[in-house]
Every structure is written in structure tokens, then in C-alpha cells.
Design brief:
The protein is of the alpha/beta class. Helix content is 47%, strand content 18%. It has helices spanning 10-22, 33-42, 59-68, 89-97, 110-127; strands at residues 2-6, 26-30, 47-50, 77-81, 102-105. It has a five-stranded parallel beta sheet, sandwiched between helices. The protein is globular. The relative contact order is 0.17.
Length: 129
């Protein structure tokens, strides 16, 4: 699978890169929401892990731009965040209405991340049979 990580935290990106490479998947990443948006527009990924709270152009900005262009459903988007935005069910419902796949809370242990990647890979494989 081709996986894109959009997260401003260098340590998280490095950990995810090691994990995703060890699982045998292709890995791309960026610390910038705006650059991540351009990457998504230019290429289809099998999974996008998106941090919600980033400076300048947040994950929410990325989702809004993708939603406006009808691109949210091109690939599964998993929010990967410790954001307090998700503390209200209203905000979580708004995000789910943008057709994101799911939400992983930070901090997540590596097993949770691997389980989510495996879940999405199984969905991908069942669609493409």
C-alpha cells in the first residue's frame, strides 16, 4: 500500500516511517498541511494519516479543501490527533460527515497503528478482488 503521513511532529513521522517500511508499505510524508493537500491532489494514496492540529494550514483545512473539491473519498483518511477538537461529539460528527475513514487518538501505541493499517489493507484487498 502507498501511505501518506501529514504531521508536523518529526518524531511521529520517523516512527511511522520505520513501522510502515517494516510492514512492507510505501511511505511518503510531509510536515505541512498545504504540501500534503498538494500531494493528495497529485496522487492517490491507499491511506492518508492526517494530523488535525498543525500550524499555518491545519488538518481541518486539508479536509475542508478536499471536501470542497470532492476528493475526500479518493482514499481512506484517518485522523491521527490528540486534538481537543474531538472532545465534543458534535465536532466528531462534523468530521465524520467529511467522509473520513476513522480517528486514531494520540498517543497511540504502534500496535494500534499497525492494526489500523492492516484493517484498511484488508478493506482495500476485498474491494479489489
Amino acid at each position: 500500500m502507498k501511505i501518506l503521513i501529514i504531521d508536523d511532529n518529526t518524531d511521529i513521522r520517523m516512527l511511522l516511517e520505520m513501522t510502515i517500511n517494516a510492514m512492507g508499505h510505501e511511505f511518503n510524508s510531509t510536515p505541512s498541511g498545504l504540501e500534503g493537500l498538494e500531494m493528495i491532489k497529485g496522487e492517490i494514496y491507499d491511506l492518508v494519516l492526517l494530523d488535525l492540529t498543525m500550524p499555518n494550514f491545519s488538518g481541518l483545512d486539508v479536509l475542508n479543501a478536499l471536501d470542497e473539491e470532492g476528493l475526500c473519498t479518493r482514499q481512506p483518511i484517518v485522523l491521527f490527533t490528540a486534538s481537543l477538537y474531538l472532545s465534543t461529539s458534535d465536532m466528531e460528527e462534523k468530521l465524520m460527515n467529511k467522509e473520513i475513514h476513522s480517528i486514531l487518538s494520540k498517543p497511540s501505541d504502534i500496535d494500534q497503528i499497525m492494526q489500523k493499517i492492516n484493517e484498511i489493507q484488508a478493506e482495500y484487498e476485498s474491494k479489489n478482488k
